[in-house]
Amino acid sequence: PHEAAVTLLIGIPGVSYRSAQVILAEIGTDMSRFPTPEHLASWAGMCPGNNESAGKHRSGRTRHGSKWLRIALIEAAHAAARSKDTYLGAQYARIRGRRGPGRAAVAVGHSILVIAWHLLSTGETYTDLGGDYFDKRRTSTAYQRRLVARLEAMGHKSPSNRQPDPTTSTALGVPTLPQGCTVAAGVRAWDVIHTSAVDGQAVPRGWSVSAVPLRSLL
Prior knowledge:
The chain is mainly α.
């Protein structure tokens, strides 16, 4: 009687016929019992715990849920991790590098459960976002704006808001250094950190010596 639901679930990368049967046996086919996929993930024990102290959020353990459902989802997650050019495979690789394989498998298992909720609620087949989904997000304009906003929140100024440097050469557009500064011996001027002969302080890379353009020093 649940063959149509099994067919929907095996369309998810990593979910085998047996895994789909276990998932349906544990959560059923009526998703109206769970208002949102987050409710389902919380009930199944596949969402991170809440560990907050003194305003700081720390990694928390997942709550206890169905043992067999968790095993099926973790197995499906490991299978999805081996899939080529898929969203779930890219998600596993992305999280594994930062948090380790165990937490990456739990995160992908959580995603599989959320996808299952949507498929069973709508009856639509699974459409993969592709293995380059996260790469496209990193190159999007919205992502770049978020990075700029983070830098500005840390006190840095974006190039559009930065005041012009009075020591920059307007003729060639090459940063220049005040008189009396020397470059470390034996290293190209383009690569080294320059040192002021007056106060001995380091000067940023890319600066030239005594207002001489860099191209004449190479």
